[in-house]
Amino acid sequence: MDNSRYQILVDVAFRKVVDLFDAIDTDLADCEAAGDVITITFAGKKRCVVNTQRPTRQIWLAANARAWHFSYDEALQAWVDDKGHGDEMFRTLTTIAREWGGVQLAE
Prior knowledge:
Blueprint: H1 3-22, E1 29-34, E2 37-42, E3 47-53, E4 58-63, E5 66-73, E6 78-81, H2 89-101
Antiparallel strand pairs: 1-2, 2-3, 3-4, 4-5, 5-6
């Protein structure tokens, strides 16, 4: 994948993350985007960080002392964890939001 394609896919994914959390009460989850990083702070001050990794053309997600490295799978048209567990980025983020903040994200 070239840099241009990667940037387009990242922009779409980041916009979707921000849009999902814009619909949530900020007392439950506050989403801040700054450059290549999105920080989501849940009630109770638990944080989740989503960021780009341009050298590897991935999106990384960190939450609760755990990290995922998502690569774009053209066949699935989804960001999928590179550890082979089949974790998809938006499903993973939805699970984190539900478990940490009692937040139900619209799909």
